[in-house]
Amino acid sequence: MKTIGFIKSLKIEEADSLFEVDQPMPELKQQDVLVRIEAISINPADAKIRIRSAAEQPHDEPKILGYDAVGVIEKLGPDVAGFKEGDRVWYAGDVNRPGSYAEYQAVDHRIIAKAPVGVAPTSSASMPLVSLTAWEILFDRLQVPLDDSSSSLLIIGGAGGVGSVTTQLARALTQLQVVATASRPESSDWCRKMGAHEVVDHRDLVQNFRATDREFAEFIVQYADLAQHWDAMCELVAPQGRIGTIVETSEKIDISALQGKSAALMWELMFTRTLFGTADIANQGHILDRVARLVEDGTIQTTQTRVLTGLSAETLKTAHEIIESGTMIGKLVVDFTK
Predict the structure, then answer these.
(1) Residues 196 and 293 in one domain
(2) Are 3 and 64 in contact (CB under 8 A)?
């Protein structure tokens, strides 16, 4: 089968930053399904892993990226339950295993779900990773209440893929007042389209947030630059409030700044359950199933804003260039069927 991979961490414009690799069909483990991939989306994680994972030493074998996919089940492992051949499924995959820049992929059935019915694969492909991340940070990490209309949620990086879904889930499933950050007119409009009650400029965040007549945010999620926004978050988080982030930093931050408020910092990595084989690994399949139903009934909308076509090194290089520009609103999708 055709796959797209890399060995060395190179700038995307270099010839071998991504290249075509002919590989054998995946071998299925007991819990696996074999999926013929129809569409994927490109995430910042794709570019980060390409840039960082082989910076010091090349991979021994080509590494296949890709952490979102929609496709059709072609084969079932012996211990698979709840799925059949021909089911269209969606998932975000597992960083321990070859990714979705491929014609076919083997994936553990516990972390997949049936894709939304009546939704194009390209649209569906925009959702799995960001939906899992948004759901886990809201409900597993921060444990936001469902019925509290007096508390607010500040989303730093509201126009990106995770921010877009976080806004929608918060509006659909909780009573929180949602304030999102954006700095351009088009990204501000997008945040409002996703359902934000207020949109503020992240530049001079404290002043702009407080201009909404809110002194503190009980919950803050940070999807942009942890170090850049750390002081502002410490100032804005409510006493006994909670901050969640998906963005690591090499800079030192003063976590003691949260001590006086008894505030919490929570990390979210969508791959934790698969990396460590946690006892609740199947929760990811359950979350994706719940999100699929929310998409089907129109409660939340998919976040695809741009589509490229074809499983090729050229197409995926273009996709990485776009992601690395840092200007994406919503999600970039690649259609493998054209």
Answers:
(1) no
(2) yes
CA dist 294 and 169 (Å) reads 9
CA-closest candidate to residue 64, choices 73, 72, 53: 53
pLDDT tier at 68 (50, 70, 90 boundaries)? very high
> In this predicted structure, what is the pLDDT of residue 326?
85
- Indicate whether 258 and 138 sit together in one domain: yes
Q: Measure the CA–CA gap between 224 and 289, rounded to whole angstroms.
A: 28
Beta-bridge mates of residue 40:
334
User: Are 196 and 158 within 8 A, CB to CB?
Assistant: yes
Counted domains in the chain: 2
pLDDT of residue 327: 85
CB 232 within 8 A of CB 167: no
Secondary element (H or E) of residue 284: helix 283-296
Last residue of a domain, one of 267, 286, 317: 267
**Which of these three, 267, 284, 319, is where a domain ends?**
267
CATH number at residue 163: 3.40.50.720
DSSP 237: E
Question: Residue 297 gets which letter from DSSP?
Answer: T
274, 101 Cβ separation under 8 angstroms = no
- Looking at the fold, whether 143 and 48 belong to one and the same domain comes out as no
SS3 269: coil
Domain that holds residue 98: 2-127+276-335
- Any idea what the CATH number is for the domain that residue 39 is in? 3.90.180.10
Angle between helices 283-296 and 128-135 (to 10 degrees): 110
In this structure, the answer to whether residues 154 and 255 fall within a common structural domain is: yes
Enter the tokens of residue 311: 């499983």
Does the pTM exceed 0.70?
yes
Nearest partner of 305 among 161, 117, 185, judged by Cα: 161
Closest CA to 224 of 254, 188, 183: 183
Are 96 and 154 members of one domain? no
With 90 as the cut, is the pLDDT of residue 196 above it? Answer: yes
The position carrying tokens 């019925």 is: 147
Return the structure tokens found at 73. Answer: 């089940």
State the Cα–Cα distance between residues 215 and 151, nearest whole angstrom.
11
